[in-house]
Amino acid sequence: MAGGLIAAVGVRLIEVSHSALHYQPTRQFFSALIAREIYLDHFSNASASARAIAALARPTGIEPPVAETLAALMFWAVGGEHLWIPRLVAALVWVAGVVPLWLLVTRLLSRRAAFVSSAFYLFIPLGVVASGSFLPDPWTVTAQLWAVLAVVVYQQEPRRRHLLLAAAAAGVATVLKLQSAFILLPVFVATSIGRSGWKRGLLAWQTALLVLITLLPAGAWYLSRPGPGSVYFLPGYFFTPEFWSGWATQVTTAVGLFTALGVVLAVLLWARGLTRSLMIGWLLGYLALAFAFNYRIATHDYYSLPLIPLVAAGMGLIVDTRGRLRRAIVAAAVANTFVLLAVWLLTAFVSLSAAPTDAATIDAYRAAGNLVHHDSAMIALSPGYGLPFDYYGHVAVVDWPHEADLDLAARAGHPYRGATASLDKLIRVQRASWFVVLDAPELDRQADLKEILFSRYRQVRGDGFLLFDLSQSAN
Questions:
Q1: Which residues pair with residue 437 across a beta bridge?
Q2: Residue 149: is its pLDDT beyond 70?
């Protein structure tokens, strides 16, 4: 077991060595900019101008900044910002999640099943990649696992202290990320129904207490925040092939579609007692998450990270049963997992060539930031909603939407008014003096914007970027 843990940490060190541009850069730099603002404002002797830029660049927080605050403290401890530090800590937190998973599977099944579940959890490719990133999700998944274990302990030994422990663990997971409630509440309700029947399981005071403790701290936080600016749910999205194909793609990326289907089949055929009610509740929780966040579940792979421990536990169930059908499902699930590993290794090999590209991109961000003297009055057409540029360029830009974002906004009921009206309004409201282009192919796709910028304003070309001086005419 110790060798497996060392290997699990070692393979994540490879991922941590990549730049944050390597995986989900928008979300990683969202956290990085929050951590920077906390660090500069509370734990450094930064200049007033640096703190002001960091404050302007800080995105509006969604979740409580737990990981970001810890990152700021670590930056203070080592004397500077190093993004690999919170990424390494996140990887270690994910690996530590194997402890509650092991305890859970050994309680319900066997040590043999726990070995299989642990190996799947530690080495499934998306788990390796995502756990080495600056996201709240590695922390959340580990917290969810502790909460699921606490629920099982309570259902096996229904004492008040066990109930409070389960409620507290679920509350922590939900504070880290609200989506945890969609996973954990169905787990508790399903296991309570399995133990006490429908009426007592649903209406018991224990259920009401757990729901209250799980939702109250997170609810207080989220109700005090402004509404999210991003799109999470599209009402008509269920009726489009895009939703179903996108969701199937994300499940395939996370755990393998056939592996997931094999786990569902195993639960329906062989799970009994508490194991059955737990797994059904866990599956229903993931389905609730998928339908409540239908746009995100079909387009963002990290929204399916909670599926990894669920399917890991299901893999333990498959290997712990007997019979010819079980052997067939085991073979299919293992083959599917090896296919994922092979694809990941091939992708990792190809991505080695991305290192120079990442370095050139970072150099372009820094050069553009230096050229505009880290001005905060600028608009940017840049990858990642301008967040990587904010971070490396030490600027605070207003993001110009990409074509895909304009289409999504129109579907959400906010149609695009055209480049001329939108640009004029943005320049006026933001008092912008620069328009920075760091995504030339996207500018080519927006022909009306390109024509306005080139016809109206003076251009300054750099290595990997293009500046338009909004204060000077092209003539």
A1: 381, 466
A2: yes
By CB neighbour count within 10 A (0-12 exposed, 13-18 middle, 19+ buried), where does 416 fall?
A: middle
Under a CB-based contact definition with an 8 Å cutoff, are residues 199 and 263 in contact?
Answer: no
What is the C-alpha to C-alpha distance for residues 383 and 91, in angstroms, rounded to an integer? 25
Q: How far apart are CA 159 and CA 262, in angstroms?
A: 35
Distance CA 428, CA 425 (A): 5
Distant-in-sequence, close-in-space partners of 55: CB < 8 Å, separation ≥ 6: 37, 41
What is the phi-psi region of residue 395: left when phi exceeds 0, alpha when psi lies from -120 to 50, beta otherwise? beta
| Overall pTM surpassing 0.85 (yes/no) | yes
pLDDT reading at 351 higher than 60: no
User: Cβ neighbours of residue 51 under 8 Å, at least 6 residues apart?
Assistant: 37, 40, 41
Q: How far apart are CA 180 and CA 167, in angstroms?
A: 12
Question: 62 φ, ψ to 5°?
Answer: -100, -65
**Beta-bridge mates of residue 436:** 380, 467
Examine the pLDDT at 328 and tell me if it is beyond 90.
Answer: no
- Helix, coil or strand: residue 461: strand
CB-neighbour burial class of residue 343 (10 A; exposed 0-12, middle 13-18, buried 19+): middle
- The 10 Å Cβ neighbour count of residue 175 is 22
Question: Dihedral through CA 261, CA 263, CA 267, CA 273, nearest 10?
Answer: -160
